[in-house]
Write a structure and sequence with these properties.
single chain, 193 residues, alpha+beta, Peptide Deformylase, two-stranded antiparallel ribbon, 35% helix, globular, binds zinc ion
């Protein structure tokens, strides 16, 4: 498992809900936490590791020792939004890129945990922002889609660099071509969603 970077097509995949939790899925989740900590992130969505599942992991402290801060969101939905706040965001699929994003300040979200319990999160500030960022991923939406045109202009060069790097990786066969990526996602999807 590895983190895919912009503009990998799986980042634009709209994930369908998972039908069940099993040992393999728990293994994916453990690997996702590991990768997230390794890259000093606070959240990671399944499509960022090239999996077409409606799932993300979160630990807003970013501290691997803080196990009680680890949350697994399976089939999450945001049900209420209130207020709004702007803050800088980054994303592990856009290494070293940061830009201000406006989001709801408080939200109510519902998701299944790894043990199959339905949990409600009534949260604000960073926790609310992280859930919104990760839920966006599952819809194939990226934080740069929500950046203002002015700030987007500042990111333009970095985005072009990432695009060039991705194309070169595909040309060299380091990353499969788009058709092969889509075929793999469809196969994984058939098994679990
Ligand atoms: Zn992200």
């Amino acid at each position: 498992m590895r983190i895919v970077k912009y503009p990998h097509p799986t980042l634009r995949h709209i994930s369908r809900p998972l039908r069940r939790v099993d040992a393999e899925l728990r293994k994916f989740v453990a690997e996702m936490f590991e990768l997230m900590y390794e890259h000093r992130g606070i959240g990671l969505a399944a499509n960022q590791v090239d999996l077409p599942y409606r799932l993300f992991v979160l630990n807003i402290t970013g501290d691997p020792a803080a196990k009680d801060e680890e949350h697994v969101f399976i089939n999450p939905t945001i049900q209420k939004w209130a207020g709004n706040a702007e803050a800088d965001e980054g994303c592990l699929s856009f290494p070293e890129l940061y830009a201000p994003v406006r989001r709801a300040e408080k939200i109510v979200a519902v998701a299944y945990s790894l043990t199959g319990e339905e949990k409600q999160y009534e949260v604000d500030e960073l926790f609310a922002r992280a859930i919104q960022h990760e839920t966006d991923h599952l819809e194939g939406r990226l934080f740069v889609d929500r950046v203002s045109p002015t700030h987007l202009l500042n990111l333009k060069e970095d985005l072009s660099d990432l695009e060039a790097e991705f194309l070169s990786d595909q040309e060299r066969g380091v990353i499969p071509n788009d058709a092969a990526i889509a075929a793999r996602l469809a196969e994984l999807e058939r098994a679990r969603t």
